[in-house]
Specification:
two-stranded antiparallel ribbon; 3 helices; alpha+beta
Length: 89
Amino acid sequence: MHKQPWHFIVIKDEKTRKEIAGRQGFAAQAPVIIVAHGNAEESPNWWQNDVGIAFEHIMLAAADQGLGVCWMGSMARDAEINRHSWYPR
């Protein structure tokens, strides 16, 4: 069974975008930041692939609509992002 072990959170709030952007401050200038969250418990062997594929499709759809996109990884900042109330538990 394909469990789709992901959540995508669209961040519009300027303060939160700045916090998430961190050292990559240019990202805070975007009107939204999409945070991807994968659930390793639901799909221990495939969640990283599944999240990456789904996120890439989001990026392709955005680009097709004429929007600029930029893939940014920040796994080293997981604890910082996890503290937000909007992040899935």
